[in-house]
Write a structure and sequence with these properties.
Helix content is 33%, strand content 23%. It has 11 helices and 12 strands.
């Protein structure tokens, strides 16, 4: 990494939810950064805190039950947790784009696509109607929605799932943001459409030199899309580093388990699943939260919480084995 300050620097982020059963500790001191033009992945099982981390960065955690209690979210040197609501609305869309997991629920079903795509440009870039129209056609062409001039007048129900996700990508880059956060944008798409969407996102990221924070449970996508990766478990980052280093030489038993559970082409070896279930985030186990499922568990793991430590070449792991 260069000495240049990152576009996004998250430090010790803590987000909880209040429920009738107790406090859900969704994000527990997460730290990571994304450099300018960089691509960083966050991976982990469902419930590990990936999406809530992204929503906390954008201050979209639903009140009153959810609340970010501590930490810093420094975007271009400005702590987003301290700015006004008005300023935060200006940053969303203009400086930070978001691609949500389900485009069907993210698009307004009663508004034409041109209304939804042009909203950010009119609000943040103050373009004339003619300029907004030209940019919308250009954006639809870039994301492969053709004929663009006709499709702009469609409603979401007239598009397939893959086309809706292309619309969401066009909306996310409409104002040429410095950072795009993609939250499992290909989960509900079939494999061929997934590949098209990933190629599209990679091409647009390179074209606009946009920083990318990619959230997924798919290690293959991380290997394809990202330069660095953060592995999350029970609301914490348990391993981080260069993608090739982490995937070729995983240190944390949880990361090892994730890799062993991936089917390999031509391999006759049986798949190995991680035993047990992710922890109840209301009653997280003491010590290392992975200790009830870990094949290498020691007595210390049950009582003491390991810190994220550098084990060389920017590769960090939170485990008492090291």
């Amino acid at each position: 990494m260069s000495d240049e300050k990152p576009v996004l620097d998250v430090k010790d982020l803590v987000t909880h939810f209040q429920t009738p059963e107790g406090t859900v500790q969704a994000v527990r001191g997460v730290s990571f950064d994304v450099g300018y033009g960089d691509s960083v992945g966050i991976i982990g099982e469902s419930g590990s805190g990936k999406t809530i981390t992204a929503l906390s960065v954008l201050r979209l955690v639903p009140p009153p039950y959810g609340k970010t209690l501590a930490g810093q979210v420094n975007f271009k040197g400005e702590d987003l947790l301290k700015v006004t609501d008005k300023h935060m609305r200006e940053i969303r869309g203009r400086d930070i784009g978001m691609i949500f997991q389900d485009p069907t629920s993210s698009l307004n079903p009663v508004l034409a696509l041109n209304t939804q795509l042009g909203e950010g440009m009119r609000e943040h870039m103050h373009h004339s109607s003619q300029e907004v129209g030209r940019r919308m056609v250009n954006l639809f062409d870039k994301v492969g929605i053709k004929p663009a001039s006709e499709r702009l007048h469609n409603f979401p129900h007239q598009l397939s799932g893959g086309m809706k996700q292309r619309v969401m990508i066009a909306i996310s880059i409409a104002c040429e943001p410095a950072l795009v956060i993609a939250d499992e944008p290909t989960t509900n798409l079939d494999v061929t459409i997934q590949a098209q969407i990933l190629r599209l996102m990679k091409g647009l990221k390179d074209e606009f030199n946009t920083s990318l924070l990619y959230i997924t449970h798919n290690l293959g996508i991380v290997a394809q899309m990202c330069k660095r990766v953060n592995v999350m478990y029970a609301g914490k980052v348990v391993e981080s580093g260069d993608v090739r280093t982490v995937l070729k030489n995983p240190k944390h038993p949880y990361t090892m388990g994730l890799l062993k559970s991936i089917p390999k082409l031509g391999s006759k070896e049986p798949l190995v699943s991680i035993p047990g279930m992710p922890p109840n985030m209301i009653a997280i186990p003491s010590g290392c939260p992975f200790n009830p499922r870990c094949p290498y568990v020691m007595e210390r793991c049950r009582t003491d919480v390991p810190e994220l430590r550098d084990v060389g070449d920017g590769h960090a792991v939170s485990c008492w084995l090291y």
